[in-house]
Amino acid sequence: MNAWKNLSQREKTLVGLVIPAFLMVIGYLYLWLPTHESLTRLRTDLPLKAAEFAWMEHELSLIEPLMTRNENSGSVQPILTVIERRAIESQVKKSIQRVQPNNNSEVKLWFKDVSADRWLRFVDQLSLDGISVDSATITRKTDGVVNVRATFVR
């Protein structure tokens, strides 16, 4: 305290202004600036994270049927039942023109004016049930639309 008494009025005023200014600079550099930068980064990242979350939800909605599909795995459904269910799910049932079962494990299908993407999704879904394409003839009708004759086997 003796040192404070020995200072002139001008020095006391200078110290009285420097200490609060120093504390303000330290507060700005170590408290406010990092917080502001983090907030700015979070505001920038939020739309990206929201888009990523929406994509993950979409992917999950595609996976959920696969995770629950074989709840009663002890019983094997007839191939025609599986094909009909998958055709409805893949939205290709209305394009099926003819169905010819050859035996319990083989079916021939004729598709007319079917979306190529939907037909491929249908085939992919059938593969999850152990059904594959034995042979197929695909004729392009227009962009993205095909006619297909295919034999499916289990």
3D architecture notes:
The chain is α+β, with helices and mostly antiparallel strands and 154 residues long. It contains four helices and four strands. A four-stranded antiparallel sheet has the order 1-2-4-3. The chain is rod-shaped, with a radius of gyration of 35 Å. The model has no long low-confidence stretch (mean pLDDT 87).
Key terms:
single chain; 154 residues; alpha+beta; four-stranded antiparallel sheet; rod-shaped
Supply the helix-strand structural class.
alpha+beta
The coarse silhouette is rod-shaped
What share of the residues does DSSP label as strand, in percent?
A: 15-25%
The average pLDDT is: 87
Tally the beta strands.
4
Instruction: Strand order, main sheet: write it out.
Output: 1-2-4-3
Helix content: 55-70%
The largest pleated sheet is described as: 4 strands, antiparallel
The low-confidence parts are: none
Query: Any idea what the radius of gyration is?
Result: 35 Å
Q: Order of helices and strands, N to C? A: HHHEEHEE
Through-space gap between termini:
96 Å
Our count of helices gives 4
Assembly status: single chain
In short:
The chain has 154 residues and is an alpha+beta fold. It is 58% helix and 25% strand. It starts with a helix and ends with a strand.
